[in-house]
């Protein structure tokens, strides 16, 4: 499966729009972002738990779900009320998100990526809402790449998807970067500045300082296109993925 990291940032690589300076010319950030996303032709998109919780309508964040006891059978992936809609995949391994419906206001069908040890009570709540779920890799020796690769394989096998847009936040983007699983990077650079040292960045990886999360990345420029009102689209291929 091809993973395309598609994001919109300030000139200093920050991704929290509410912290940006005002551009000299008015920019509809949502419109330009979605228009470019369509050109990338994904079968859906992926986000982290915090990003999904911000959708608000029909999505509530709570405490982590319970875990299965030893010896309990491993659950299977579940396909809910998809109705041929594109996918909105959320990585929520601890099962903190609660859903009241299977779709988002923007029309996508929700698929949750969970830890396979999540208990049956949480899975039952997801099924009642019509939400689909698959599982990431598991085990004490399981690397981050193996966990994410298992989730992607489950998504491809269960839903037949071949290309997904990775749309943040920075922590999830950083995990995919460090795992060497990003095939393309698409960035809309806006004529704005954040300037805060603590602001969320395009990629945020909290691993060992002795390791480089970008070790598996060699970028080749595919497109560089000026868009309306000072926005620039940069589209790269990772030749190592």
Task: Describe this structure as you would to a colleague.
It is a single chain. By secondary structure, this protein is of the alpha/beta class. The protein folds into two domains: 1-43 and 162-240, Dihydrofolate Reductase, subunit A (3-Layer(aba) Sandwich); 46-161, no CATH class. It has five helices and eleven strands, in the order E-H-E-H-E-E-E-E-H-E-H-E-H-E-E-E. The protein has helices at 29-40, 49-53, 120-128, 144-159, 170-178; strands spanning 2-9, 44-48, 59-61, 87-91, 97-99, 109-114, 132-135, 163-166, 184-189, 219-226, 232-238. The strands form two sheets. The protein has a nine-stranded mixed beta sheet, sandwiched between helices. The chain has a two-stranded antiparallel sheet with strand order 3-5. The protein is globular. It starts with a strand and ends with a strand. 36% of the residues are buried.
């Amino acid at each position: 499966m091809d993973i395309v990291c598609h994001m919109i940032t300030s000139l200093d690589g920050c991704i929290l729009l509410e912290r940006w300076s005002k551009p000299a010319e008015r920019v509809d950030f949502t419109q330009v972002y979605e228009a470019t996303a369509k050109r990338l032709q994904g079968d859906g998109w992926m986000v982290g738990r915090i990003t999904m919780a911000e959708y608000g309508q029909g999505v509530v964040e709570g405490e982590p779900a319970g875990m299965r006891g030893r010896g309990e059978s491993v659950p299977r992936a579940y396909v809910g009320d998809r109705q041929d809609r594109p996918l909105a995949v959320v990585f929520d391994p601890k099962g903190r998100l609660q859903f009241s419906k299977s779709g988002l206001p923007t029309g996508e069908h929700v698929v949750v990526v969970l830890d396979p040890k999540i208990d049956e009570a949480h899975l039952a709540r997801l099924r009642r809402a019509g939400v689909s779920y698959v599982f990431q890799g598991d085990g004490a020796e399981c690397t981050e790449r193996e966990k994410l690769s298992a989730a992607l394989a489950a998504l491809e096998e269960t839903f037949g998807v071949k290309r997904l847009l990775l749309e943040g936040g920075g922590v999830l983007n950083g995990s995919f970067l460090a795992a060497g699983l990003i095939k393309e990077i698409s960035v809309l650079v806006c004529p704005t500045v954040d300037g805060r040292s603590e602001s969320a960045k395009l990629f945020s990886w909290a691993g060992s300082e002795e390791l480089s999360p970008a070790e598996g990345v060699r970028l080749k420029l595919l497109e560089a296109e000026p868009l309306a009102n000072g926005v620039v689209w940069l589209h790269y291929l990772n030749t190592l993925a």
